[in-house]
C-alpha cells in the first residue's frame, strides 16, 4: 500500500470517529433525555436500556455482533472491520454522552436537531466505509434473496420498532421517533452522497458539436455521443454526460442558448466509478 492510500485510509478512520462522536452526542445528549428513539438496533438498545437500566452502549455491541458475523462472508472483512471499529467508538462515546443532558426541553426541537446531528454523524460513517447499525447489514443480505429493497426492509423493521415503542412509552414518543428517522434518513443521504451526487444528462440535439464543446469548456466534462433516429425528425445526435447537481444550472444555460435546439432529460446517478472530468492540456 503506497503512502497516498495509507493517508486516505487514516483520514477515513478519523472522519468515522468524528461521525461516531456526533451520532453518540445526538442520541445520548438530545434524543434519549427526551425519550425519542433512533431506528434499528440502536432503537432496540434504547428501549432495553430504559427498561433494564443497563447502559445502552452495552446492548449496542451485544446486539450488533451477530449481524457483523452474518455480514462477514457477504460484505467482506474490510467492511466488517470498519463497521466494528465504528460501533466500538460509537458505544464508547455514547456511554459518556448518556450522562450529559444539554437541557433541550422541547420535544420537537430535540427531534429535529437530534435527527440532523445524528444524520450528519451516521452519514460520515457510511461515506467513509463504516456502519453503526446491524439492521442495514441484515437488510443487504435479505434483499439479495428477495424482491424487497434494502430501504423497504429497514423501513419495515423500524415501523415494528416504533410500534413497540408506542406501546411501551406512548405513541407520541413513537411519532416523534418516526419524524427523527425521516430527518436522519434525508441527512444521511445528503452527507453520504454530498453535493457531488451525480446527475446523468441525455441531450438530443442537432447542434451536438457546439453543445459538447460548451460542456467541455464551461464544465470540464467529457461527453459521449452516438447516433439516434427520431420518428419525426429523422437522424439526430444524442449526447450523454455526467455532472453534479451544482452544475445543472450551467448545463441548462448551455442547452437554452438562442442558437441551440435540444431535448434534455436528467436522471439521478447513484454511484460513479472512474473519472468523468477531462483536464485541459496545458498551453506552453
How many independent structural domains?
2
The multimeric state of the shown protein is: single chain
Shape: elongated
Strand fraction equals: 5-15%
Read across the widest sheet, the strand sequence of neighbours is: 2-3-1-4
Give a quick account of the main beta sheet: strands, pairing sense, barrel closure. Answer: 4 strands, antiparallel
- Strand tally: 4
Span from first to last CA?
35 Å
Number of helical segments with 4 or more residues: 10
Radius of gyration: 24 Å
pLDDT below 50 for ≥5 consecutive residues: which ranges?
279-284
Keywords:
10 helices, Alpha-Beta Plaits, 2 domains, alpha+beta, elongated, 4-stranded antiparallel sheet, disordered C terminus, 284 residues
Structure, explained:
This protein is α+β, with helices and mostly antiparallel strands and 284 residues long. It has two domains: 3-193, no CATH class; 198-269, Alpha-Beta Plaits. Helix content is 63%, strand content 12%. It is built from ten helices and four strands; from the N terminus they run ααααααααβαββαβ. It has helices spanning 3-31, 40-52, 56-75, 77-97, 107-127, 134-145, 150-169, 171-193, 208-219, 248-255, and strands spanning 198-205, 224-230, 234-244, 262-269. The chain has a four-stranded antiparallel sheet, with helices on one face. β2 and β3 (234-244) form a beta hairpin. α3 packs parallel to α6 (134-145), α5 packs parallel to α8 (171-193) and α6 packs across α7. The longest helix is centred in the first third of the chain and has 29 residues, at 3-31. Residues 279-284 have low confidence and may be disordered.
Amino acid at each position: 500500500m503506497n503512502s497516498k492510500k495509507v493517508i486516505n485510509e487514516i483520514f477515513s478512520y478519523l472522519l468515522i470517529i468524528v461521525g461516531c462522536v456526533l451520532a453518540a452526542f445526538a442520541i445520548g445528549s438530545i434524543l434519549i433525555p427526551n425519550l425519542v428513539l433512533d431506528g434499528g438496533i440502536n432503537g432496540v438498545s434504547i428501549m432495553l436500556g430504559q427498561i433494564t437500566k443497563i447502559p445502552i452502549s452495552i446492548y449496542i455491541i451485544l446486539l450488533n455482533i451477530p449481524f457483523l458475523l452474518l455480514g462477514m462472508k457477504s460484505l467482506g472483512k474490510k467492511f466488517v472491520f470498519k463497521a466494528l471499529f465504528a460501533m466500538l467508538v460509537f458505544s464508547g462515546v455514547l456511554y459518556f454522552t448518556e450522562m450529559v443532558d444539554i437541557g433541550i426541553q422541547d420535544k420537537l426541537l430535540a427531534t429535529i436537531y437530534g435527527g440532523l446531528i445524528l444524520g450528519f454523524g451516521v452519514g460520515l460513517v457510511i461515506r467513509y466505509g463504516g456502519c453503526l447499525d446491524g439492521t442495514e447489514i441484515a437488510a443487504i443480505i435479505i434483499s439479495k434473496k428477495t424482491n424487497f429493497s434494502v430501504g423497504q426492509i429497514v423501513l419495515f423493521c423500524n415501523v415494528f420498532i416504533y410500534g413497540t415503542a408506542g406501546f411501551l412509552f406512548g405513541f407520541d414518543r413513537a411519532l416523534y421517533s418516526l419524524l427523527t428517522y425521516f430527518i436522519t434518513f434525508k441527512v444521511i443521504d445528503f452527507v453520504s452522497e454530498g453535493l457531488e451526487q451525480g446527475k446523468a444528462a441525455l441531450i438530443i440535439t442537432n447542434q451536438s458539436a457546439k453543445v459538447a464543446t460548451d460542456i467541455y469548456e464551461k464544465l470540464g466534462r467529457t461527453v459521449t455521443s452516438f447516433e439516434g433516429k427520431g420518428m419525426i425528425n429523422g437522424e439526430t445526435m444524442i449526447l450523454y454526460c455526467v455532472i453534479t447537481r451544482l452544475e445543472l444550472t450551467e448545463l441548462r444555460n448551455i442547452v437554452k442558448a438562442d442558437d441551440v435546439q435540444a431535448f434534455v432529460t436528467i436522471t439521478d446517478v447513484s454511484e460513479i466509478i472512474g473519472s468523468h472530468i477531462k483536464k485541459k492540456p496545458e498551453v506552453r
